[in-house]
Model the fold of this input.
Amino acid sequence: MNFFSQWGKFMMMGARAHAKWEIDVSNTIFGDKKRMIILGLFIIPIILLGVAFADQISEALPDLLGGKKAYSPAFYSTGIFIVSILIGLGAGLITGCIGAGGGFIIAPALMSAGIKGILAVGTDLFHIFAKAIMGSVIHRKLGNVSVPLAMVFLIGAILGATAGGLVNRVLYELNPVLSDAFITTVYSLMLGFLGTYALIDFLKARKSGDIGDAHGGSAEGADLGSLPKKLQGIKIPPMIRFDNDLTPGGRSISWVFLVLSGALVGLAAGIMGVGGGFLTFPIFVYIMGVSSMTTVGTDIFQIVFTAGYAAISQYAIYGFIFYTLAMGMLLGSLVGIQIGAMVTKVVPGITIRGFYAMAVLAGFVNRIFALPAKLGDMEVIAISKKTGAVLESIGVWAFFIVISIFSVWVIGTFLKNIAVLKGEEVKS
Done:
């Protein structure tokens, strides 16, 4: 049970750190007119070109990688664009309101909407990369970035992202259903574990009467535990120094552990399409003993490069990115984050934590119920197509009902409390 609790805390801290990055990016974009113009330059041309040439694109380019008949429709339609905005909106509301990993629902949502898993992963990575480039706050965090730490970490991240993209592409070439089953299994394991921990955490908080911060607090500093001390005590040269301004004489760790950590983060990004940022924070702070200040700056740095490298080199050039969806998700998530963040000012934290547990578990149910049909198609298990389809439909409906209820509740709460929010009054 202690192991479960520690790993649950580990994953939750990572989810919160990544959500904080997304919220900062959204605030940066909406707070700068130039970035708003860039957002329009990203999205408007896709809409205009799509409207003008939708029929020609879908008919004349069917055999290109990423074309209509190759993997999934990469052409524009109003319906596709609206769905992508709604998916991004739901993810953004969760991220802004709960401050913990709304992006985890994007790939399951896309797969539930009929997008193949590998395309959902590539599209999610591109959406994260576009968001990171537009809202980059690296220049504001340079004082907190250890460049040697970041550079060595990125060596591993690039290797891991390459391996993750290769795994997904090889499985897809072997059998598209196998690819979907693999991605579905990975998401089932992660969402099941995280959702169970979030539910237990919510129930404990409610029982104890702790209605505090919806975001659950944050890790402060880097008080070295036994594991970080052991790792920093292993002297395999070259040793990479960091936190020179925060601790007397600074700290150091072997390049081996940085490369291995980067490889794990890159592998997760390459396979799941989530940027990898949700792992960087807990690995740096709890395993390697890096201060939270340095970790935040380095995390921002790595997300831009890891997501960008994985999106372009592992998915875009092979046609596994659905650009219309990516831009719609980008727009929806930025708006959703703004609304969600404001709602936290007028809603008890315990309520929001309960919704988060429900949202993550809904994602788990969605993926685990989709798995039997895929395993049946590969003849791994004996299940009729009808039964598999029914189970998959149950998962899809359960997922979208929960996310829709949450989204309606958040937007409704926002609209009801506009006057309160304008006055910056906060309910206790």
